Amino acid sequence: MATVIIEAQQNADTPYTYTLTGAQTFRPESAFAHFDGTGASGPFLACLTFKSIDGKIFSRTFPSTAIAAGGVADVSYAPFPGGIGTSTQPLPVIDFVQFNPVGGFVAITSTDPDNPDDVSIGNPLPFDGLTTIQLQFGAGTMDIDQRGVANTGALLIELWDNGAPIGIISDFSVAADAYGSVPCYVFTFDTPAAGTHTYAIRSYIQPSGGGTQGSSNIYGADITTPHQTRPGYFAILAA
Amino acid sequence: MAEVTLGPGYQIVFEAIDPTTGAPVSGVVVSEIAIGAEDMSGDGAPTVITVTPYLLPQSSG
Q1: Total-model pTM
Q2: Which residue, of A25, A59, A83, is where some domain finishes?
Q3: Chain A within 8 Å of B61 (Cβ-Cβ)?
Q4: In degrees, to the nearest 5, what angle opens at C-alpha A84 toward C-alphas A119 and A19?
């Protein structure tokens, strides 16, 4: 079978769509495009996307590094797919810290959002200011025991970057005079500025109405018996 | 995925998206597009297909 080459000879604004016509049926093996972001409104990923007849995306491929606004790039795609954002290629893990605290859990006692308890601290990592990362925190369970307490209680988990809070990623609440336990697997995305970043998972409690809060914990081990608990983790993934 | 076969009606899209939100980024121009592909039609069609996204209006005369 012959090789088909499709060429676009002039400039086009993105998104530029080519729809297969007639009896065209082919298997793409490589692709190339020149992206000119001179007038771009912001940094961008140069994507090659395949859509089915009904317009649904079934593949999106792009280089691991974003192109800055004002930048230009020659981008090759081969083989398919490549880069993050596809369903068949895993995200590389660039940092992984096991959450397996002494005693099996971290007791959260701080009520100060600006001085919370440490849960898991990542390693310092260098970034280029363009790379988007995915941050994951997983723990078998977290619980709040408000039995005998006349107000609701909450346990909040926040992501920190270089010693500053950058956003809550989990808020778990339990009603007055109740006990609650839920698994804790959360993730979020960030595009850190150029430089070294140390991410951290930190937590504090928030009893309502100036009340009190019972035992509140995040577990990395020893949830129950007879089976072992898989350790929790704090991981950072990128292309 | 390396074995995906595209047929009539399928779309190949070159696009610029925000690395954080996934939203389209405006003001980006793409050119020099070339796609190498294995012809699966078996119909003896031309092996080079030219796509001209911005054709000038043709004269009616």
Answers
A1: 0.53
A2: A83
A3: no
A4: 150
